Amino acid sequence: MSDGGWRLAAFEALCLTDPSGKCAAVAGLTATCGPEVPTVAAAALDWARVPGRPDQPQLVHPRSVPTRGLGSPSGRAALAHAVAHIEFNAINLALDAACRFDGMPAAFYRDWLSVAGDEARHFQMLSRRLSELGYAYGDFPAHNGLWEAAEKTAHDVMVRMALVPRVLEARGLDVTPGMIRRLQEVGDDATVDVLRVILDEEVRHVAIGSRWFRYLCGLRGLEPVGTFRALLHDYGMQLRPPFNREARMAAGFLDSELG
C-alpha cells in the first residue's frame, strides 16, 4: 500500500462500526502503510457511510449527559467512559483527516494515521479499564460534539486543523490534570495511569494540528494568530481558561493566542 492506495483501507477502517474491529484495522493500517500521497481522490469515497460507530452509546445533548461523583465505581466508570468516547471519536477524526483532504504533503497523511493509531490504543486502554470496573463502552450516554465539529469543518483543511485539534482536542490538555487529581484523591491509580499516558501523547496530536494549521496559513498568505482568532469568532468557539500553559506551549500555542 506504499503507492498511496492506503486511503481505501483507511476509509474502510473509518466506516467500521465495531470498536474492536476498528482498532484492529487501524493497527494493521499503521503497521503496513507508508503512506504516500493518496492516489484515490476523496471525492471517490462514499461519505454517506461516515462515521462508522456502534449503535451504543446513546447520543444525547451535552447538557443531558449525567454527571456522577467519583466516590463509587459507577462514577469512575462514567468518567472513563466519557474519555473513551472522546478517544473513539478521535480515531474517526484522525482517519477522516487522512481520507477527506486532498493535495497535502505525504507527511500530513503519515501524521494523521499515526494519530489514529495512538487514539485506537488509548481507546483500548480505557475499554480494559471499563471492563475492570464492570462496564463496557456504550453503557453510558454520550454526546456527539466532536463529530459535529468534523462535519462543520469538512469543507476546508485549514479550518479543520484550527478548530478540531487546536480547540476541541486541546481542551483535554487543560482538563485532564484535574481529572487525574480527583481520581488520585479517591485512590483510582489504575485510571490515573491511563490518563497520564493519554495526556502525554495528546500533546503531540495537538502539535500536529498546530503545525499543519500554520503550514496552510503560510500557503494562503495568512497571519496565523489573527486567522485563528477570526475562525474562533466565525464558528462561535472560544478557548476557555484556565489553561495548561506548559502543555499548550509544547503543542504549538503562543502566549498571544491564549491571552
Q: How many structural domains in the coordinates?
A: 1
Q: Using the CA coordinates, give the radius of gyration.
A: 18 Å
What composes the largest sheet?
none
In the CATH hierarchy, the third-tier topology is known as: Ferritin
Poorly predicted spans: none
Task: Please characterize this protein's 3D structure.
This protein has 259 residues and is mostly helical. The chain has one domain (6-258): Ferritin (Up-down Bundle), CATH 1.20.1260. The protein is 65% helix and 0% strand. The protein contains 11 helices and no strands. It has helices at residues 6-15, 19-32, 73-100, 106-132, 145-152, 157-169, 171-185, 189-220, 224-234, 245-250, 255-258. α1 packs antiparallel against α2. The chain is globular, with a radius of gyration of 18 Å.
Short characterization:
With about 260 residues, this protein is an all-alpha fold.
